[in-house]
Amino acid sequence: MSSKISTIINVLLNEEPNVIGVALIGSDNQISFQTENWDLSQDLSGILNLIQAQSGVGRITLQGVNYMVVENTPERKIATNIKGKGHIIICPTGDNNAALMCYISPQAGPRDALFNVQEYAKKLKKKL
After folding, report:
1. pLDDT computed for residue 1 by the predictor
2. For residue 127, which phi and psi values (nearest 5 degrees)?
3. What pLDDT sits at residue 112?
4. From CA 100, how far away is CA 122, in angstroms rounded?
5. Contacts of 90 (CB under 8 A, 6+ apart)
6. Please, are residues 8 and 18 in contact by the beta-carbon 8 Å criterion?
7. Band of the pLDDT at 12, cuts 50, 70, 90?
């Protein structure tokens, strides 16, 4: 991963306090980056299913935590844990399923961080 991409992700983490974990899914359908506190390697197939789904995916499990998909549009996927364990936002960063994926604090709502996550997905798209 280039240092420019790493810098963009670090700025996102510093600017948006509601983003606790970040992963970047590359166009090769692999995790090209993830923060140390969020290992999604065992959940990659479920993540790819959600990224590729136009509709119909009702839930995803990440690190043993179940999330209900509450929004599934081409611009973003939003999932939330109904037991208050946080939220997930996935925004495309390019073609072929490349996406920025963020874990949002349980103390915030997913929309509290949505604007920043989408803006940083656009910045990453320019660098990929």
Report:
1. 59
2. -95, -15
3. 94
4. 9
5. 47, 50, 51, 76, 77, 78, 99, 100, 101, 102
6. no
7. very high
